Amino acid sequence: MVIVMPETLSLIQGFRVLSCAPNGEPIKDERAATDLVGEAWGQRAEVIVIPAERLDDAFFQLRTRVAGDIMQKFTTYRLLLVIVGDISRHTAASSALRDFVHETNQGDHVWFVSGLEHLDERLARRAGA
């Protein structure tokens, strides 16, 4: 039997952050993203944190368009999507993904961070802006 931890809500640098548990159903399509958007809205969250290991491998293969579809769902609802964790095996295999992550991190809608300490730093900068 697999025990799935629920999403948790916390306050980081003044932002309401809904963090997904690392274990649970893989987030593999727009429907899963829509479910998370609904959860975020119900909790009045502004930021959604998804551990990289919860994302289906197709997310990291840009040709599948899964990443774009999922990211667009959060952007449409004005939620900051943060992917947290080590994605180096994916970026090592794809220079296009590496460039995509770099460009995405320059914006305000989707961030890829290696750990929660980096999320705290980025949110602190955003709060001060």
Secondary structure topology:
Layout: E1 8-12, E2 15-19, H1 30-43, E3 47-51, H2 66-76, E4 80-84, H3 88-93, H4 95-104, E5 110-113, H5 116-128
Parallel strand pairs: 2-3, 3-4, 4-5
Antiparallel strand pairs: 1-2
Helix pairs in contact: 1-2
Question: Please, could you describe this protein's structure?
Answer:
This protein is of the alpha/beta class. The chain has a single domain, classed as Transcription Regulator spoIIAA, CATH 3.30.750. Helix content is 42%, strand content 19%. The protein is built from five helices and five strands, in the order ββαβαβααβα. A five-stranded mixed β-sheet has the order 1-2-3-4-5, sandwiched between helices. Helix 1 (30-43) links the parallel strand 2 (15-19) and strand 3. Helix 1 runs parallel beside helix 2 (66-76). The longest helix is centred in the N-terminal third of the chain and has 14 residues, at 30-43. The radius of gyration is 14 Å and the shape is globular.
